[in-house]
Design goal:
With about 375 residues, the protein is an alpha/beta fold. It is built from ten helices and 16 strands. Helix 4 packs across helix 10.
């Protein structure tokens, strides 16, 4: 009997330990209003809120107790903000709950409630001030969490067909990388994009918009703005890679997050070079303004595209010549600025003689395009099932 009670208690405690995990925090700072999105892997119930006035030696503090919640590996215990009256966010493990604190220069009104399947929305407003209409609304954030474009969530007639924006990298005065035989990245990207666009229309029956269909310059800002304005379901940017040596080769696919390694950061710097008005370092809010609901969808799509392209090319060209560099993350301007699932595909290295030779071949271009189309079709089908 005693053993049975011990086992029952252990089971209950184990079940409690498998509660929600806080995976992400997004902060939107406005005029007298801060909106914070806490994203967990499971729903959090029984919220408890507390607040305190500031004193001469301690900042004002708003406190939220998250029962049965633990801190995920991607969320730090101390997150400095230092903007618009918000000093920092801190998190403490209370054993059976997680304590979330917001330290402020002055006291604010606190309101917290659940949105979506497993997120908490926190509003902090100065006394006598209302909500800042320039911040994303609760409805739009709820749609964001479900992976819907923030722009589309604001309104507009529904579409019968999916819309994919295909973005051939570079163009015009921005030729991108130059291969060992003089091949221009802008030309390869355009040819791959045209073949991919044709396949998406013919095989998947989706609408497609190319950000450019000739050798013209289109700014990174305008590429992202086009996708947002058209409320696209998917943004697919196509490029060719390059290295400072002639032995790196292979294929890789990127989605949006902080750079996964030094090589990913280098690729992002090269592709972002034409966005003179923007830099990751120059935007202090960037890391907290990443689209919270689309990052999972983008990662899933990147994995699907990478796996399908490698599988098909290995079957045709063999694994010795086609290197699988996997999926990575980096802060590409076009991925940061789009508000729908988005990936950037690096088709091979122009700086590698073998990769460049294959990239110039129509059969290789078509094989890559066909694989991308297949992957997008699989990904769309998966969204319907979910």
């Amino acid at each position: 009997m005693r053993l049975s009670l011990i086992l029952l208690l252990f089971a209950l405690l184990s079940g409690f330990a498998r509660g929600a995990t806080l995976e992400k925090i997004r902060v939107f700072n406005g005029d007298g209003h801060t909106r914070i999105l806490l994203i967990a892997d499971e729903a959090i119930g029984g919220l408890e809120t507390r607040s305190s006035q500031g004193t001469a030696i301690a900042p004002a503090r708003a406190t939220l107790i998250l029962p049965g919640t633990t801190l995920g590996p991607e969320v730090g215990e101390n997150i400095p903000i230092k903007e618009r009256g918000i000093i920092r966010l801190t998190l403490s493990d209370l054993g059976q709950a997680l304590q979330f604190n917001v330290e402020m220069q002055a006291a604010r009104m606190l309101r917290a409630r659940a949105i979506g399947k497993s997120a908490i929305l926190v509003d902090l407003t100065e006394p006598g001030r209302g909500l800042d209409s320039n911040l994303p609304s609760e409805e739009r954030l709820d749609a964001w969490l479900r992976g819907v474009s923030l722009v589309r969530a604001a309104g507009g007639p529904p579409r019968d067909r999916k819309l994919v924006v295909v973005d051939p990298g570079h163009g015009g005065r921005d030729h991108g990388a130059i291969g060992t035989q003089g091949t221009r990245e802008s030309d390869i990207a355009l040819e791959l994009a045209r073949r991919t666009a044709a396949g998406l229309k013919e095989r998947l029956g989706v609408d497609v918009i190319l950000t450019r269909d000739s050798d013209v310059f289109v700014s990174l800002r305008d590429r992202a703005a086009l996708a947002n304005t058209e409320n696209a379901d998917l943004f697919l940017s196509i490029h060719a890679n390059a290295a400072l040596n002639n032995y790196h080769h292979g294929i890789e696919t990127f989605s949006l997050a902080n750079a996964s390694d030094a090589a990913a950061a280098r690729v992002a710097r090269r592709e972002n070079a034409m966005a003179k008005e923007w830099s990751e370092e120059g935007d202090p809010l960037l890391g907290r303004l990443i689209a919270a609901g689309t990052d999972r969808l983008s990662r899933d799509l990147a994995h699907e595209v990478q796996a399908t392209v490698i599988r098909r090319l290995h079957g045709t060209y063999g694994s010795d010549d086609i290197a699988d560099l996997g999926t990575k993350t980096a802060m590409f301007y076009v991925l940061v600025s789009t508000r729908m699932p988005a990936i950037l595909f690096e088709s091979s290295f122009l700086s590698h003689p073998g990769d460049e030779r294959r990239l110039r071949a129509p059969h290789f271009q078509q094989a890559q395009a066909d694989a991308i189309v297949e992957a997008v079709g699989t990904w769309f089908s998966r969204q319907k099932e979910e």
